[in-house]
């Protein structure tokens, strides 16, 4: 494929990322500081001096990535954002080149899909943040690109193993998608990438279990944040969101405040394990005592996951817990600067248009090109992760970003349909002709 348009789009994406950072000056939040602290431990090989509090609910994938690029970024947010953006651009380009090679996308469709993804605020704002979703999305795109390629060559096998390992190590919940990722090569009786992935992922989880035993004297291949996430999505307030407990003890189950406050007197190692255990028990009790109530919250968590843009996390800091999406909070002049409601309205409209274009594009693609195995794969991935966050955990807009990075490619079919049906600019045809001319030359 002719590369100059992809390069131009990638450059514009980088400008959007840097401009977004300069305008809004996000800063690095508590999660980002935790990731950087863990990354510094890995980069310095200071295992004896690791802070248990920083590693308690931190999956190792993103800190390892930050540690690997520290010599270039020096933990500066703008440099981290640029590296993350470049990684995402290359992973997406790799996926699209394989979609083109297998005949799933035309050259013009690849250009359109590339632009749609990289110009989306969901992507360029996420790439600007020191959070795990950007790397998770890049790892997922890389894994899917290798699957489309067929994982036949050594190079694609290596990329598949790297992508899957970083995907799971960055966000442990994606281990539930592992069978889906391994199914295509198994179906083709290509067991080499399956064995390699299981071996290296198993080795990485073993090393993480060893780290946990060293820090917490407890063997676990994962982190210790699942209890907090589970109670967040299944708390008794009926809002299906995680909140800062220290801002409101009303977030906790009735008569459990003393149990929680007692944990604050413990050292960081014991506090981590005790709070994880308590939150898991409370989440279990919330289902045991009123399963019908929790079932009713599942649709709300699904809507919070998919209807709210990634940059809008206004639920976490709430101290009053109410059901519903609470979108009116985004337009409250008492909370935001004068431009807040206009900014929120703009990004909501843009995101919802993207979501609509994606759904319509999926339908158009199915009608025009039937329902292929790749479509089934993406649909199942969407269903698995949606079920996971909507049932066991909590709904938060930024959690949809990795899967959104795949889904948004369907929006290219909507753009092509609109252009062909209403504008008739023949831009897709001209792009194809230009690519063919380049190939002949």
What does this structure look like?
It is built from 21 helices and no strands. The longest helix has 30 residues. The protein is mainly α and 441 residues long. It is 69% helix and 0% strand.
Brief summary:
The protein has 441 residues and is mostly helical.
Mean pLDDT: 93
Helix/strand order, N-terminal first: HHHHHHHHHHHHHHHHHHHHH
Secondary structure: number of strands: 0
What share of residues are in beta strands? under 5%
Major beta-sheet overview: none
Inertia-based shape: globular
Unreliable spans are none
Structural class: mainly alpha
Helix content: 55-70%
Total helical segments? 21
Radius of gyration, taken over Cα atoms and rounded to an integer in Å: 22 Å
Distance between the termini: 13 Å
Supply the key terms:
441 residues, mainly alpha
Write the layout of secondary structure elements.
Blueprint: H1 4-24, H2 30-44, H3 52-55, H4 61-68, H5 70-73, H6 77-101, H7 107-118, H8 121-127, H9 133-149, H10 154-170, H11 178-187, H12 192-216, H13 226-233, H14 257-263, H15 268-289, H16 291-307, H17 340-369, H18 373-392, H19 401-407, H20 411-423, H21 427-440
